[in-house]
User: Fold this.
Amino acid sequence: MEYAVSTDVFPCAVLSDELNLVRNQVADYLMNAAGTNPQAQRISQNDLAMELGTSREMVNHALASLKREGAIKIVRNKIMVDIKILRIILFTGVT
Assistant:
């Protein structure tokens, strides 16, 4: 008998460590790209994934996580960053 684990039910349990790593990589990339100015960053998920050496799906999950945490806003395919929240995520791990 075969059993399948639904990723709809356990997505974070299965990918939590990897997702956390990619989320931090995305946060670091966006913070460095923004510098001290939270201007909108325009980069596709595919390009960001290639830059970080991960999949577009993982970048999508990481961006969604950062959006839920208030670190970014996505407006018209541009990413607006909140540098203070990104720093908190990167340097303390607390959100």
Observations:
- Residues 11-34 form the longest helix (24 residues).
- The chain has one domain: 14-92.
- Residues 47 and 56 are 8 Å apart (CA to CA).
